[in-house]
Design brief:
About 30% of the residues lie in helices and about 30% in strands. By secondary structure, the protein is of the alpha/beta class. The structure holds adenosine-5'-triphosphate (ATP) and 1-O-pyrophosphono-5-O-phosphono-alpha-D-ribofuranose. Adenosine-5'-triphosphate binds near residues 57, 96, 97, 98 and 188.
Length: about 220
């Protein structure tokens, strides 16, 4: 019997936005998937040829890059940070809209000129993207890796700047920070393991087409 295709979905905010797309693509998870008290991580669907796993957003890319899942959904912030050559991202799902930005305390920004920096210390979940962004204009970025609550770092003297995701800007504002540069616009993508794209071409291509139609058929999530 052919193994089911495994689709990796991120827990958290993206999952809510991804579920209508999944449904529009003809995939209905088993009831346990929406049961918050369930500790299961792997789920069947209405289609015997499709299974779902629910993992952390950064881990979606890792599962797909290693071929443990054939497809997945994750933000291009995650794809940029890992830069996995094994991942192909054929469909922009038009969900998870935000941007990856550099921010600093409002009082520092008042007299600061980012063009004059030669060295910066940055707290971020995205050290690879941050270093590359600054390197491209000759600035050396010393990164302190955090997994959340980056906005605390400047006030507590961990770093003068942060690189983090911004959507409404509320988190920055409530922590006395302002956005000084945008590194990248972010949306979530359907991602595919390149080897699976070749070895299981008919199934994977059909799945890509279903998601492309589903994303195109929904109103803009922004
Ligand atoms: N404020 C936001 N608005 C819109 N999309 C966002 C926002 N924050 C994050 N995202 C998108 O959602 C993805 C997952 O972020 P989320 O905050 O749900 O995960 P997390 O809590 O940071 O990580 P973990 O999976 O480790 O718990 C990000 O990679 C990004 O693409
Ligand atoms: O501009 P805003 O609309 O305020 O959104 C930005 C916040 O959203 C994300 O965090 P999230 O809420 O996912 O929490 P996290 O720190 O646990 O990742 C991001 O890391 C920012 O902190």
């Amino acid at each position: 019997m052919v193994k089911p295709l495994v689709i990796a979905l991120p827990k958290g905010r993206i999952l809510k936005e991804a579920l209508p797309l999944l449904s529009a693509a003809g995939i209905e998870p088993e009831p346990a998937f929406s049961d918050e008290s369930s500790r299961a991580l792997r789920f069947s669907t209405n289609r015997p040829d499709v299974e779902l796993i629910r993992v952390r957003s950064f881990d979606v890319a890792t599962f797909v890059a290693h071929g443990a899942a054939q497809l997945g959904v994750c933000g291009n912030d995650v794809l940029m940070e890992f830069a996995y050559s094994e991942i192909y991202a054929p469909v922009d799902l038009n969900i998870g809209h935000c941007r990856l930005s550099v921010a600093e305390p409002a009082e520092l920004a008042a007299s600061d000129n980012p063009a004059s920096w030669s060295h910066v210390r940055v707290a971020t979940k995205y050290p690879y993207v941050t270093r590359r962004f600054f390197e491209a204009r000759g600035v050396q970025a010393e990164c302190v890796k955090l997994n959340g609550a980056m906005e605390l770092a400047p006030a507590l003297g961990l770093s003068s700047r942060i690189v983090d995701l911004v959507s409404s800007g509320r988190t920055l504002k409530e922590n006395g920070l302002v956005e000084v540069e945008v590194i990248a616009e972010v949306t979530s993508r359907l991602i595919v393991n390149r080897a699976a794209f070749k070895t299981r071409a008919p199934e994977v291509t059909a799945m890509i087409d279903s998601f492309r139609k589903a994303a195109g058929g929904l109103p803009d999530a922004a």
